[in-house]
Design a protein that fits this description.
Distance between the termini of chain A: 60 Å
Number of domains of chain B: 1
CATH class of chain B: Alpha Beta
Strand content of chain B: 5-15%
Number of domains of chain A: 3
Shape of chain A: elongated
Number of helices of chain A: 16
Oligomer: heterodimer
Number of helices of chain B: 15
Radius of gyration of chain A: 30 Å
Structural class of chain B: alpha/beta
Largest sheet of chain B: 11 strands, mixed
CATH superfamily of chain B: Amidase signature (AS) domain
Strand order of the largest sheet of chain A: 5-6-9-1-10-11-12-13
Helix content of chain B: 25-40%
Radius of gyration of chain B: 21 Å
Strand content of chain A: 15-25%
Number of strands of chain B: 11
Distance between the termini of chain B: 11 Å
Order of helices and strands of chain B: HHEHEHEHEHEEHEHEHHHHEHHEEH
Largest interface: A-B, 28 and 44 residues
CATH topology of chain B: Amidase signature (AS) enzymes
CATH architecture of chain B: Alpha-Beta Complex
Strand order of the largest sheet of chain B: 1-3-2-4-6-5-10-11-9-7-8
Chain lengths: 482, 483
């Protein structure tokens, strides 16, 4: 970051994350929520805001909000209220958005993030339910705008953090953690391209040591982890430069332009709407009983932090593997199924998933549930590594063949003749031949150049197309080269 | 045929004395003859005759309810599929609803024949039917007087026998006040008793649909079909609907009537007061006892209402923006121009006045002083009723402080107009059911007796009204020229 002359600056960040809840139907109507349908085919009379229509709350959205609240150890409001947020915009059919204002469903909670090896607790102020707006389409309408109301009424849970993050890095870690959590809970698909998970960042700076917050700017609608980091860093830079040049930060809403990597002003505080919130008389207050909370608690899956800890203990995994394997519930499930099915060492299973499998999945842009190699087939492969039928190196070949077919590891090993050679006689003959063919290297080795040993191993393996048992080769070479 | 009760008409249809098509035709003819009353915004003649033919088929098969084949009319606030639904506004002059309100759906399913859509104050905002884009409705009892509002078209049409009965809606008195001014019987049910789905919202926490008919017995038939829980309306109440016919004939021995002294104070016209006193005497003859009760917060009802109702309407009417349906200004230059001109040209004066009041009351810095305070008053008023209704079975008083006023008389003075709802508004704030029953005449115009009951006591109210109508014939009086 820039040249800071007078002060050391501290950054203060709070995030508002909008998660689209993975309900079957909209929050106040029976219309479907599926993404990508033809414009206005998933908007019923209620979503269109026709005269006379009324909202009816989707119970699934309430359950999901409570689930989230319980997962962050938040207070669940026994009584929460929907309010109307009034403003005019063409993609807002009723001229108001149904949201929660004074009494949100989820109150104060918290989440722990890990940055550079230290754990920090971030406070969550609240999370409230609201409906999404539609979309304005400005292209291909001959100078006019089109409105697609498919998204109107899609349930959102807006998660508001305390201004407790002190760097873009922390903000990204927090956002990732929320992303991981909502997917664990099965309440959001986390798809950022489709806008299912997006965030607004409130950013301010203050001289280090000053207690009072600086004036904040709100950066709207950031939909990737990369952009959050860039947008915040850019904004911090802008604010510091502004102040150091004698200017003042004004409270305003800014938009991040990913193409230009800059934020620009959308509207100032003076232009801000007076939303005239008031309780929506069409909807009754939401009452959450202790009983209902207990019932939802019973449905909570093992949460990421708990799973990580368990994996480290139960499977003796290192931190890195534990983090990768618990990044999603599905990946963790795959791992545990693999350990059980293969009966191999957990470490071997972990390394294969976090190494080979995740790499090819990422390359093919697939997630674990779409993996062409299921855990049963991968278990078959690992079993052959464990019982020395093939070497780790050959296993990579077999894996590649498995990725491109539906054959089992055993079929591929047999078909390609990849079974490891453990016949000492055969190995010995090859070793003798290599030693005889390379007298210079033998001399070097014997004169103390230990590195040359690797050359002999390589030559033997090459000659035997990698099928020789590496341990056996090592052992025998050592004897022969004495 | 047009003077018969629903029950008599249902018998006539079943016995073959006349068909629903004949009955419908005769009402359509009357509507044409009395067009000058301006009761209807739309007359759906073809649809009505088609529905009547179907009703005749059902009657022939014996598949009927009391409403099968009975010609009724809908206040134009209820959405009717394929039929223009205007809410009395230029804003919706071109709006053909793509769906039916729950009330409409239920009445259609019962086989009722819809004759058309009734005139009303624009978006139900008014007490005289003069704010309608489609012009004032005339009171059949005195055609230079208003019929009351906002369900003025409904009340006038029933009084003039242009429909057997009609639907109405009541946010601050909009069923009871026109019923009183037109000499018919109207019932505003408990908030939540009748579904609001498809009923274009004015003030959502106060709006309630209800029956308007010549007698309590007819109201009972209509309410039987209109009432009940609706999954599409979160504020509708999931309680069983009693058999309203069954309770009509219970005697009134020992009925305890409360008379709030605040209902009989200064603003009440003495001729109206005299009629109400006579009606109370009639109840005493029927076995009731009378007790004075007090509603100390009643005077706050109008100011509280004119914060809450406009606040809700300011949001409810935001959807009329010229974007998706309804009126759109010509050649909008940009988005702001589209909004401001569409709304500026599409809404009438009273609607704009209330949107402005409501927007102001909800604005930052004013919300606590107006909206929150009004809600507190609302609770106090509910408490007043609760206390009184703990001591008595029902509360009685006038519906209006005077009889129907002249067309043009109050339209220039909103405050005076608002005061004509002084006895009805508090009941909406409390969410209670109340009726207007024809109780006599003053200055040649009808006077309504108001009966207010406890929550979901519609059966009791209908019983009380029916017993009075067995003993009197005020409800059978027909205005001159409409016999």
């Amino acid at each position: 970051m820039g040249h800071h002359q007078e002060h050391e600056w501290e950054t203060v960040i709070g995030l508002e994350i909008h998660t689209q809840l993975a309900t079957q139907s909209k929050i106040f109507s029976g219309a479907a929520t599926a993404y990508g349908a033809e414009p206005n085919t998933q908007a019923c009379a209620v979503d269109l805001g026709l005269p006379g229509v009324l909202p009816v709350l989707n119970g699934q959205a309430v359950s999901m909000a409570v689930k989230f609240g319980l997962a962050i150890e938040a207070e669940i409001a026994p009584h929460s209220v929907f309010a109307r947020k009034n403003y005019f915009y063409p993609d807002l059919p009723k001229g108001y958005q149904i949201s929660q204002f004074e009494l949100p469903i989820v109150g104060k909670g918290h989440l722990d993030i890990d940055v550079d090896g230290t754990t920090k607790r971030i406070g969550i102020t609240r999370a409230h339910l609201e409906e999404d707006a539609g979309k304005s389409l400005h292209e291909s309408f001959h100078g006019m705008s089109g409105i697609d109301l498919n998204r109107a009424g899609t349930p959102l849970l807006e998660i508001v953090s305390e201004p407790e993050m002190r760097s873009a890095k922390e903000a990204v870690a927090y956002m990732r953690k929320i992303h991981e959590l909502v997917r664990y809970l099965g309440i959001c698909d986390g798809n950022m391209q489709e806008g299912s998970f997006r965030c607004d960042a409130n950013v301010s700076v203050r001289p280090k040591g000053q207690e009072e917050f600086g004036t904040r700017a709100e950066i709207k609608n950031i939909n990737s982890f990369k952009f959050v980091e860039k947008a915040i860093n850019h904004e911090v830079e802008r604010q510091i430069e502004l102040i150091e040049n004698g200017g003042k930060v004004v409270q305003e809403t800014r938009l991040y332009d990913a193409n230009k990597d800059e934020t620009r002003s959308m509207r100032s505080k003076e232009e801000a709407n007076d939303y005239r919130y008031f309780p929506d008389p069409d909807l009754l207050p939401v009452h959450i009983s202790e009983e209902f909370k207990e019932q939802i608690k019973g449905q909570l899956p093992e949460l990421p932090d708990a799973k990580k800890l368990r994996f480290k203990g139960q499977y003796q995994l290192d931190d890195e593997n534990a983090v990768i394997l618990t990044a999603s519930r599905q990946l963790a499930d795959y791992f545990e199924a693999l350990v059980k099915e293969s009966t191999c060492e957990a470490k071997l299973c972990a390394n294969w998933i976090t190494g080979d499998l995740v790499a090819v999945l990422n390359k093919a842009d697939l997630d674990i549930t779409q993996s062409p190699v299921n855990y049963q087939r991968l278990a078959g492969l690992l079993l052959r590594i464990s019982d020395d039928t093939i070497s780790g190196k050959i296993a990579k070949q077999v894996f590649e063949a498995m990725w491109n077919s539906t054959a089992t590891a055993d079929d591929i090993i047999a078909e390609k003749g990849l079974k490891q050679i453990t016949d000492t006689g055969a190995i010995e003959a090859i070793i003798d031949k290599i030693i005889a063919d390379n007298p210079d290297q033998v001399e070097q080795y014997l004169s103390g150049k230990d590195k040359v040993f690797g050359f002999f191993v390589g030559q033997v393996m090459k000659d035997m197309q990698g099928k020789a048992n590496p341990a056996e080769v090592n052992k025998m070479l050592k004897i022969k080269l004495k | 045929m047009h003077t018969k009760s629903i029950k008599e008409l249902a018998e006539g249809l079943r016995s073959g004395e006349f068909s629903s098509v004949e009955l419908t035709q005769s009402f359509l003819t009357r509507i044409k003859q009395h067009q000058s009353l301006n009761c209807f915004i739309s007359v759906t003649e073809d649809l009505a005759l088609h529905a009547a033919k179907q009703a005749d088929g059902r009657i022939a098969k014996g598949d009927t309810s009391l409403l099968t084949g009975i010609p009724i009319a809908q206040k134009d606030i209820f959405c009717t599929q394929g039929v223009k639904t205007t809410c009395g506004s230029k804003m919706l002059d071109n709006f053909v609803a793509p769906y039916n309100a729950t009330v409409v759906e239920k009445l259609n399913a019962a086989g009722a024949v819809m004759l058309g859509k009734l005139n009303m104050d624009e978006f139900a905002m008014g007490s005289s039917n003069e704010t309608s884009y489609y012009g004032a409705v005339r009171n059949p009892w005195q055609t230079d007087s208003v019929p009351g509002g906002s369900s003025g078209g409904s009340a006038a049409a029933v009084a003039a026998r242009l429909a057997v009965c009609a639907t109405g809606t009541d946010t601050g008195g909009s069923i009871r006040q026109p019923a009183a001014h037109c000499g018919i019987t109207g019932l505003k049910p408990t908030y939540g008793r009748v579904s609001r789905y498809g009923m274009i919202a004015y003030a959502s926490s106060l709006d309630q649909g209800g029956p308007m008919a010549r007698s309590a017995a007819d109201c009972a038939v209509l309410l039987q079909t209109m009432a009940g829980f609706d999954g599409k309306d979160s504020t509708s109440v999931d309680l069983p609907v009693p058999d309203y016919q069954a309770g009509l004939n219970a005697n009134l021995n020992g009925l305890k009537i409360g008379l709030p002294k605040e209902f009989f104070g200064d603003g009440l016209n003495s001729n109206v007061a005299a009629v109400i006193e006579l009606a109370i005497k009639e109840y005493q003859k029927l076995g009731a006892t009378v007790k004075e009760v007090s509603m100390p917060n009643l005077k706050l009802a109008i100011p509280a209402y004119y914060v809450i109702a406009p606040a809700e309407c300011s949001a409810n009417l935001s959807r009329f923006d010229g974007v998706r349906f309804g009126y759109r200004c010509a050649n909008p230059q940009d988005l702001t121009d589209l909004y401001t001109r569409s709304r500026g040209e599409g809404f009438g004066k009273e609607v704009k006045r209330r949107i402005l009041m409501g927007t102001y009351a909800l604005s930052a810095g004013y919300y606590d002083a107006y909206y929150i305070k009004a809600q507190k008053i609302r609770r106090l008023i509910s408490e007043d009723f609760k206390k009184s209704l703990a001591d008595v079975d029902v509360i009685m008083g006038p519906v209006t402080p005077s009889t129907a006023f002249g067309i043009g008389e109050k339209i220039g003075n909103p405050i005076e107009m608002y005061l004509s709802d002084i006895y009805t508004i508090a009941i909406n704030l409390a969410g209670l059911p109340a009726m207007s029953i024809p109780a006599g005449f003053a200055e040649g115009k009808p006077v309504g007796l108001q009966v207010i009951g406890n929550y979901f006591a519609e059966d009791k109210l209908l019983n009380i009204a029916h017993q009075y109508q067995q003993a009197t014939d005020w409800h059978q009086q027909i205005p001159k020229g409409f016999e």
